[in-house]
## 1
Amino acid sequence: MSRRPASPPVVAMIGGGQLARMTHQAAIALGQTLRVLALRSDESAAQVTPDVVLGSHTDLDALRRAADGATALTFDHEHVPQELLEKLVADGVNVLPPPSALLHAQDKLVMRRKLSELGAPVPRYADVSSVDDAVAFAESVGGAVVIKTVRGGYDGRGVVMASSVDEARAIVEGYLADGVPVLVEERVEMRRELAALVARSPFGQGAAWPVVETVQEDGICVTVIAPAPNLSYETGSAASELALRVAAELGVVGVLAVELFETVDGRLLVNELAMRPHNSGHWTMDGARTSQFEQHLRAVLDYPLGDTSALTPYTVMGNVIGAPQTPAISMDERIHHLCARMPEAKVHLYGKEERPGRKIGHVNIVGADWESLRERAERAAHWLSHAEWTDGWDPHT
Ligand code: ADP
């Protein structure tokens, strides 16, 4: 038996967003309290855990305060600079995933290069140091390209589509003039987007949840269907194996999400990596034996990993995304109506103020018929954000 400490371990998470909030929920069940480094006391996770360190993830002192006495230090986002992470490691802090792994979720160019080196399928891409590089690449793939900032994008920010060489030239010119490093890649003709979610522990144990379909609108994930409908056993297994291999090769500890494109001709290409609980895994809170949040804790604490099997044939998650106009009726009243109409809906709200386009919660629904679940999860999520029933339902008639 390994010797484990007498008091509960403390996991410190950098970032006080919804991922930290939901990780704290999982920590409670394990008899723990998640420590959170938050910018403000009203952030999602800072509202719910008593162990809050206020400060910035770019301030070494704040990071050190968060790390003090923690069994492991992990992340709600990937924005902590490498230099600071290396200082923490030098202090003896158990940073998980290690900075050398996390770099692949921070820098899209490093990630593309590494995946190519590992033989993992990625979209054709080019490193761009001049407008000519971008133009030459766009010409070579027929004009339809995507320009991405190498660092710092999320939810589609920092991703711009170009339909022609001229458009690509203009966009790249703009970025380079501002001194923002970008890469250019082919615009993939895709059937849909998938995500393979896995976890890996320092001991080297790996676990994979069923591969899911993620539905995006304007670069933001709106719906997740778990497992991905009509995905062959072979393709699903190949995606999971690829994700487990990437986790092992990069030395990831914790949850790893591998965002994938399924091309119109049936190939899988890796789009992005995230080394933390991920939106594509929120369904696991109600639809899997072990949630991604519990699994992330288990992994960074080097516990044996939990069973990742699904509890029902399908789970559909609908993101609650702030409406262009915040509804006049309160969220409390919206929840009340939702509970009345859809007792099967599992609501998870993040305690965030409503703003257009902001993810403020999600709804999970489990069952057997994914099309009906999708319709209901999207209807429930739309109701919570817009206070409108998409099918015109009126409780008073
Ligand atoms: P972010 O880092 O902001 O999440 P992503 O790289 O995941 O950005 O891109 C956001 C979305 O843009 C993807 O989910 C996908 O819908 C679309 N996209 C990204 N890259 C490509 C591509 N090469 N071809 C076609 N669509 C793409």
## 2
Amino acid sequence: MVRVRFAPSPTGPLHLGGIRTALYNYLFAKKHKGKFILRIEDTDKKRWIPHSESYIFETLKWCQIEPDEGAGYGGDYYPYYQSKRGDIYRFYINKLLDKGHVYYAFDTDQELHKKRKEYHNMGLTFSYNYKIRMHLNNSLNMTKKQLYMKLHSGSSYVIRLKITPGEKLNMHDMIRGKIVVYTDNLDDKILLKSNGGATYHLANTIDDHLMKITHVIRGEEWLPSMSLHLLLYRALGWSTPIFAHLPLILRNDGKGKISKRNVEKLDFPILPLQWKVPDTKTIIPGYRELGYFPEAFVNMLALLGWNPGGNKEIFSLKELIHFFSFERVHKSGVYFNIKKANWFNKQYLNKKQEEILSYLQIKLQKRFLFYEKNYLSKVLHLIIDRIYFIHEIWKHSFYFFISPIYYEYNFFHQICHKKTFYLLEHYKIFLSKIPIFTSLHLRLIFKKIDKANRRIIMQLFRFALVGDLKGCDLFIIFEMVGKEESIRRIDNLMKKIRKKIFHGFFEKRT
Ligand code: GLU
């Protein structure tokens, strides 16, 4: 049975890359009727950031890609927090010691620093590997007795993997195909830290094996670790899972990959949910708070690195499960584009008319305004093309329900003279005499006004009705709000202009 895991470290909020890894794991598991597991990789206490775990849980829930098993969900391979698995890691490191696959290294930070400096001065990079390990402070250069003495003296040590040089490792990745690595180029990575805790490499490999993970699906940043992990599986006598390393998500301004480091400074969102930065207490809104639908977010994310072929872009979660395959996951980095993200939201918004209507109804009820559903539907029909998010509806439709609260400052000042006033007066009377107040009829009647005046008066009427030069077709607004209300709004604007001309008073609203 397929068993995959999402293994985030609680070092801050998940970003687009992290949640996409979770999504691809989920899709793959569901497609193959397997299990999707959540494991929290919290071995690095120094990098732990409070609330990261609850953030992970909430994000998976919001995206509706919840695990079948794991941290917060339970399962047979408990515990799913690495911080609770210390004994397991120590058990296996002892096995590796017995077999001679690892060794104790006693080099102090100062000693290593000195070495690095020496190499640097020679124009070389220091690497703790087979070439140099015999000249360093480790158990490979000690007799059993010396080692015994050293350990009993309480010297601090780490445990490193002893890489055998001269081997060509043929590896396979589901996305990248064949990958070759020469063990000569690998260094003896630390597996057990001086505080007795396992490093990511050791814990990750042991857990994947013990949790019976069949496919390791993770970000490209872990590709360089794959050879080390394969060697570890081999040293432990275990078969290896199948690997897939997902492409990086790149910023489309050419500034490299998306990362959570500069999340506060980015001008586009990369977090699924709101995050409060612990140090600064700054609140960074996520896709949820910005009004994206989770289905749209998930759909957008799925296509950020995977191409199903053909022109279809809108996929429900069920369809994603059906169509998803690693053959169509890109090898190279993919560019994130916020416009495309908005486009996805728009496609889902168009299908959510009932939700938009109830949102609008609630908005109106709060103002003690009640409208027939028929009228609201008409409004929605008129403005839906202008909005990408539910919350934008009010900004674009308020003038169908209430008169403008304020007038756009610049245009108002431009029209504050007697000529406009008289023009408005004249055409208000003209308007009031039109018997049939439908957009069709009004359009015909207005055609009779000479061109120069028509343009100006239509602008002024729009301004009176909307408070701005934006909005839907003017004749439709007339028809929707009705003659009486239209004239009332024209009167209001005239009053404002008169006040400004005679008293020089107009409050600036921003
Ligand atoms: N803990 C690692 C991370 O947060 C997971 C890497 C993996 O999936 O192997 O990126």
